[in-house]
Write a structure and sequence with these properties.
The complex is a heterodimer of chains A (340) and B (327).
Chain A lengths: L1 H14 L1 H16 L6 H26 L7 H19 L1 H25 L4 H20 L4 E2 L19 H19 L1 H11 L1 H6 L4 H27 L1 E2 L8 H11 L10 H20 L4 H23 L7 H8 L12
Antiparallel strand pairs in A: 1-2
Helix pairs in contact in A: 1-13, 2-12, 3-7, 3-10, 3-11, 3-12, 4-5, 4-6, 4-10, 5-6, 5-10, 7-8, 7-12, 11-12, 11-13
Chain B lengths: L1 H9 L6 H24 L6 H26 L8 H19 L1 H25 L4 H20 L4 E2 L4 H7 L1 E2 L2 E2 H18 L2 H11 L1 H6 L4 H27 L1 E2 L7 H11 L11 H20 L6 H26 L1
Antiparallel strand pairs in B: 1-4, 2-3
Helix pairs in contact in B: 2-13, 2-14, 3-8, 3-11, 3-12, 3-13, 4-5, 4-6, 4-11, 5-6, 5-11, 8-9, 9-11, 12-13, 13-14
The chains are: A mainly alpha (340), B mainly alpha (327).
């Protein structure tokens, strides 16, 4: 019986991990800092989590579809420098739109590589990660661009509705909209079917490749949005702005509970993951913990949660990503060859 | 499923365009690069230039050799490589003063191997997704390595070992000898031993391998432990030959190594691949990097061209495989 209770405790801990984490951070922050539990802190946590949040939100449908997108950081950099570069040329709002459009375009390139050319998404987006990170450096000659109109982006992070800023409000609305799409519409539910078993989904009349392609375009769109907002609110387009963003984004999605194996996940869970991670980083930062030590905590948290999840859910039945890929694209299966 | 019937089909596949493409592509690619290089610049085809190119790429080549095993066993990729390189380098230089160069280097190797073992336990035994597990351990280890040195640069003391690492034997730098030596051990390990067959079986069909009493968990864990060790070796050698080390010493090495393995033709799905092909992949990426500089392109273009080549090579390979599958 004792063993059973322990397992139940573990299951509950995994189930309510976001709540536990947020409470733990609030207690830790409240005890260690005088003015942590204030509206201002909450506003700042939300606002700063927005950039990682958009990336994580875009990544969610890709992971649900059983794919991965490593190129979101590079997309973000490209969108940021496009926005800042185009500002004096075509005006503020069209430039912002151009930044997002660049994101969508690169997302479409990813979709083309994965769906049409049947390249494994890990390899395809690794390649586009390299290509667009390099292109961003080439276009800017490795120097950040500064905005011609630094005032334009400031309202994005200004005060708005109690604990919100305009960009965090957009982020929250986007998360809720995505939740409605994923859970309440037929197309959203089809995406889960594609992620759990693409060939079964195809057999039941779902155009799996279309959903996979759409998820990459969506991910590009959100990464473009993240890049556009980041560059406008800092009034600078850095070619390496997105390079450090990939790992926090994946961490946030995984803390939320979306599986890399596909077929499971939710945008509200991602929202929770983003907030928990954001609150933790802010609490550590306010305590003067250097950023490299924060990386230790974030990494440990990621490993701990995922191990706990794995131990609780048991070893059986979980197929590895590679095996699932075989089912996703049977034609793409490499034939084992005898190596000389 | 498909994999179970595949070997029977592949016996009679030696003359299809796909098989020809995959056997001949690497030597042809190297030849083409050498021809372009010698036309483009008179300084390309000199012993000095080629030695330098190989010397500069041997470090990341060592990691690519380990990454081959990771991919063959279906472990996708080890993204904690930069952290293990940094650990190897920083521990070596950090401990050099107190314990002497050789023990410090051993210590660096040991710490990086421990990182690899942790990866192996998480991925092989707990069966956590390799991308997530290595992102997590990479984040922790890189943070720890920075904590060790307070985030700054560590400088090396002059020592006999670092003089040796920087020296040449028979006109070939020690770095290249080490790369050749490791490749000569690992190629037969994958191609000729039971451990190699286990690796291929685990990556080809995990359940079938498990059913055939292959130690699936150990095999997968060993691939990550090996990559951790080789990343550490790379870090130790870099630290000793550069005379300094920073936490960012291995940044981007994971991607370069994956690129080399993928260009070499090892499948990211696991189940097939060869160390010799990875050596070819390392040569190709090395020559491309050299050509970019000799042709006068800015060095930032390296990622652009490498990425395009990965897409091209993998795309063509996937095309031929699909075609062969239909025949």
């Amino acid at each position: 019986m004792k063993n059973f209770d322990f397992a139940l405790l573990g299951t509950r801990a995994v189930q309510y991990r976001l709540v536990i984490m947020l409470i733990a951070v609030a207690v830790f922050g409240g005890l260690s800092l005088d003015d942590f539990l204030t509206v201002n802190t909450l506003q700042s946590v939300l606002d700063r989590a927005t950039v990682v949040g958009f990336l994580a939100l875009g990544l969610t449908p890709v992971l649900i579809a059983g794919q991965i997108d490593l190129s979101i950081g590079s997309i973000m950099s490209m969108a940021g420098i496009t926005t800042i570069f185009m500002q004096p040329v075509i005006g503020n709002v069209p430039a912002a739109a151009a930044g997002v459009a660049v994101g969508i375009l690169i997302g479409a390139v990813n979709a083309l590589m994965v769906v049409v050319f049947k390249i494994n998404s890990l390899v395809a987006t690794l390649a586009t990660l390299l290509i667009f990170a390099s292109l961003a450096l080439l276009l800017t000659n490795s120097y950040p661009l500064s905005s011609e109109d630094p005032i334009f982006g400031l309202p994005l992070t200004a005060d708005f509705l109690w604990i919100l800023t305009p960009r965090s409000a957009i982020f929250l609305i986007a998360a809720v909209l995505m939740f409605v799409w994923l859970k309440l519409t037929p197309t959203g539910r089809n995406l889960y079917a594609v992620g759990s078993d693409a060939s079964a989904a195809t057999s039941s009349g779902i155009y799996a490749n279309g959903y996979i392609a759409a998820s990459f375009v969506l991910s590009g769109f959100f990464a473009g949005l993240a890049g556009m907002m980041q560059s406008l609110s800092t009034a600078a387009g850095s070619p390496v702005a997105g390079a450090v963003m990939l790992i926090p984004a994946i961490t946030a999605v995984v803390i939320g509970g979306t599986r890399l194996e596909g077929g499971r996940g939710s945008s509200l869970a991602t929202l929770g993951g983003v907030l928990a991670l954001g609150a933790l980083t802010t609490a550590l930062e306010y305590n003067g913990v250097p950023s490299y030590t924060q990386a230790i905590y974030t990494g440990l948290l990621l490993i701990l949660l995922i191990s706990l999840d794995r131990i609780v859910s048991g070893h059986g039945g979980a197929s590895s990503r590679a095996q699932r890929s075989v089912r996703v694209a049977p034609r793409n299966t490499p034939l084992p060859r005898r190596t000389a | 499923m498909n994999q179970l019937v595949a070997p029977a089909k592949s016996l009679d596949k030696s003359k299809t365009p796909g098989a020809l493409f995959s056997t001949l592509s690497i030597p042809i690619a190297i030849l083409v690069l050498v021809v372009i290089g010698s036309i483009a610049s008179p300084s390309f085809l000199t012993v000095n230039n080629l030695t330098n190119v190989l010397n500069a790429n041997s470090a990341v080549g060592l990691i690519a050799l380990g990454m081959t095993f990771v991919m063959v066993t279906g472990g996708l990729a080890d993204l904690s490589v930069p952290a293990n390189v940094a650990m190897g380098a920083l521990v070596t230089l950090g401990a050099q003063e107190t314990m002497g160069t050789a023990p410090a280097a051993l210590m660096g190797l040991l710490v990086a191997s421990m990182g690899g073992v942790v990866n192996g336990l998480l991925i092989g035994y707990l069966r956590i997704n390799p991308i997530i597990a290595t992102l997590g351990t990479g984040s922790v280890l890189l943070g720890l390595s920075q904590l060790l040195v307070g985030g700054g640069i560590v400088y090396a003391q002059p020592s006999a070992l670092s003089t040796f690492v920087k020296s040449s034997i028979l006109g070939i730098p020690v770095f290249i000898w080490i790369f050749i030596f490791v490749a000569l051990i690992l190629h037969p390990l994958l191609a000729r031993t039971s451990f190699g067959r286990w690796s291929l079986a685990v990556g080809g069909n995990y359940q079938a391998a498990q059913a055939s009493a292959v130690p699936v968990r150990f095999t997968k864990a060993a691939a990550f432990a090996m990559t951790g060790f080789l990343a550490g070796l790379c870090g130790v050698l870099l630290a000793l030959s550069n005379g300094q080390a920073r936490p960012i010493i291995g940044t981007g090495y994971e991607f370069v190594a994956i690129t080399a393995v993928v260009i070499g033709g090892t499948s990211v799905f696991g189940g097939n691949g060869s160390v010799l092909r990875t050596v070819g992949g390392v040569l190709i990426t090395a020559l491309i990097g050299n050509l970019i500089i000799l042709l006068g392109f800015p060095s930032q273009a390296t990622g652009l061209i490498t990425g395009a080549i990965v897409l091209g090579a993998v795309g063509i390979d996937a095309y031929f495989r699909r075609k062969a599958g239909r025949l």
